[in-house]
Amino acid sequence: MTHSVTIEPIGEQIDVEEDQTILQAALRQGVWLPFACGHGTCGTCKVQVVDGDVDVGDASPFALMDVERDEGKVLACCATVESDVTIEADIDVDPDFEGYPVEDYTATVTEITDLSPTIKGLHLKLDRPMTFQAGQYINLELPGVDGPRAFSLANPPSQADEVELHVRLVPGGAATTYIHEQLQPGDELNLSGPYGQFFVRDSQPGDLIFIAGGSGLSSPQSMILDLLERNDGRQITLFQGARNVPELYNRDLFETLARDHDNFTYIPALNDADNDPDWKGFKGFVHEAAKEHYESRFAGNKAYLCGPPPMIDAAITALMQGRLFERDIFMEKFLTAA
Ligand code: FES
Questions:
Q1: Residues 52/81, Cβ–Cβ less than 8 Å
Q2: Measured distance CA(241)–CA(219) in Å, rounded
Q3: d(Cα 195, Cα 99) in Å, to the nearest integer?
Q4: Which of the residues 8, 79, 86, 315 has an alpha carbon 20 to 30 A from that of 228?
């Protein structure tokens, strides 16, 4: 049975199947609602039920307190509807968000490469093209692994029937261990997407600084390939952080892009290069490389950060000390798929 849900204050109406959550239905119909964890623990997707009957589902009492339940609040990622419903959501849609609907896809593994000692490049062929914005992510299902895992797309949107992912092995992590040890070319996987609010704000002026660490290079790679393909005229600078040379992956790709495009600069930084006498590049953390390059003056730029939380925190501090404001900094709160 299908019910309609009206989302205020935007006045959008969506159809919600009996077994769908409000969030699933909204994303699949191209209507963005705020969310993060997707399974009832963070509270980001809290909405107010104004009218109609809703089953709150499996919401954690920490994410949705009893007093909030009594006030008619629900978590959109857990709640199913039992009648036509009106909800009120705190929606602040970015004008640059294109809002492509989430769909399900079947994908065939075409190639698995060793990008670094700990990161594999996973290439999949989709059963049909996926429209997405560079920087977004997919949810991948793996055999024997409970629940989907989020991975950022590394390919640009022009390669719409392919998926490239960078997968770091998380010790003890069921999904990344499966990908590193068992997955084979020819295997079929199910995935859904696109998800996420990490994308280049084309309407906002300013040159672009990308700061990436570890397998967090995937989103910036997609965004930079897309910008260069679109002949975007802004200056683009990528700071890529890694521990040592073996962990600094896709270096050839970015060195080639920097040679071929006057508006692209590539600066790798190694924080553990002492055993590598041949390393002539920056030694230190990636945010320190950015500080040195810009002489700690970032004003007028927009920064896009993707990597592990300590890298993001250090980069934000450096950028704000160098006169960027919150509105100038965009980040992928790192999706540590295990
Ligand atoms: Fe985290 Fe719904 S998205 S609780």
A1: yes
A2: 14
A3: 9
A4: 315
Whole-angstrom distance, CA of residue 90 vs CA of residue 98: 18
Which ligand 1 atom lies nearest to the CA of residue 35?
Answer: 3
Secondary structure class of 153 (helix, strand, coil)? coil
Whether the predicted pLDDT of 92 surpasses 90: no
Round to whole Å and give the CA distance between 225 and 231. 10
Instruction: State the ipTM, two decimals.
Output: 0.99
Q: How far is the CA of 33 from the centre of ligand 1 (A)?
A: 11
pLDDT at 194 over 90: yes
Q: How far is the CA of 78 from the centre of ligand 1 (A)?
A: 8
Q: What is the DSSP pairing of strand 85-88 with strand 46-51? A: antiparallel
CA of 226 to the centre of ligand 1 (A): 30
CA of 220 to the centre of ligand 1 (A): 25
Condensed to tens digits (0 to 9), the pLDDT of residues 211-247 reads 999 889 999 999 999 999 999 999 999 999 999 999 9
Mutate which of 75, 90, 197, 335 to test ligand 1's pocket (most atoms within 8 Å of Cβ)? 75
Ligand 1, pocket residues at CB < 6 Å:
35-38, 40-45, 63, 75, 77
List the domains of the chain with CATH numbers.
2-88 (3.10.20.30), 103-195 (2.40.30.10), 207-332 (3.40.50.80)
CA of 151 to the centre of ligand 1 (A): 18
DSSP code at position 245? G
H helices present in the chain, as ranges: 22-28, 66-70, 174-181, 218-229, 251-260, 286-294, 309-321
Question: Which residue in 97, 77, 88 sits closest to 196, CA to CA?
Answer: 97
